[in-house]
Fold:
Amino acid sequence: MKIGVVGAGLMGAEIALVFALGGMPVVLNDLDEAALERAMLRLAKLLDKGVDRGFYTPEDRNQALAHITPATDLESLADCDLVTEAVFEALEAKKAVLQSLDALCRPDCIIASNTSTLPISTLAATLSPARRPLFLGTHYFSPVSRMKLVEVVPGFDSDPAVTGKLIDILRNIGKSPVEIKDVAGFAVNRMLHAMLIEAIKLVEEGVATPEDLDIACQLGLGHPIGPFALMDAVSSGLCLQVQEILQEAYGERFRPPALLKQRVAAGLVGGRGQPGWIRKDS
Structure:
């Protein structure tokens, strides 16, 4: 199979990598040539660390990088068997990319959207009726190169045979896909943000510090990372955005805590090099 990925950000680049490690030729597309260069450098460093830790052989590293072709022109995806849209989480941006892919990809090409919150059937409405059976959602988890789970989300018109085929493809590259109904936030984000909201409320109420709650989740619940370190990793701004979407869909149980809103407004969001809950210095 030939694979295409649109968007060379953190998620898109690593989605391309896991298919390349699975031995498939991959076209990694982005309008920004500098973004593609940064992505390839980042993937090379990630693979180098993997070689040092014994996850990959030097041959694995070299073959994976050789399987990825950076491209700034969307037309380079025209002969792909599977294309994953992985641009930033904005409805209009995703719609524009999907419309372009619908027009240029082969009629039998499967198109997937990597989204954590946007309804798949809303995105599918952008596509031609003939394409909708071959369109569905794939929610990867960061870092994609290490996290095995993928939520596979069919839309109203997705062909069950196409869903099954994509699940098989994902299993063949070492992922553990689960099929999830197309609802706001899918499954994992609903469970996760219920916990994050309660964790922030415990801090608001003075019950415990973020540091102690992280230790409690790691040692008491067996979590590999605590809720506040996780928010620092993915950014509190993104968490607030997701909770606002969930609140709109499900009501008060997902209302973002006031403390989260205050910290985001103050720039204490975590993410890449920014101060957060646990990370105090930029």
The chain is about 45% helix and 15% strand. The domain at 189-265 is CATH 1.10.1040.50 (N-(1-d-carboxylethyl)-l-norvaline Dehydrogenase; domain 2). The CA atoms of residues 110 and 230 lie 32 Å apart. The first helix runs from residue 10 to 21.
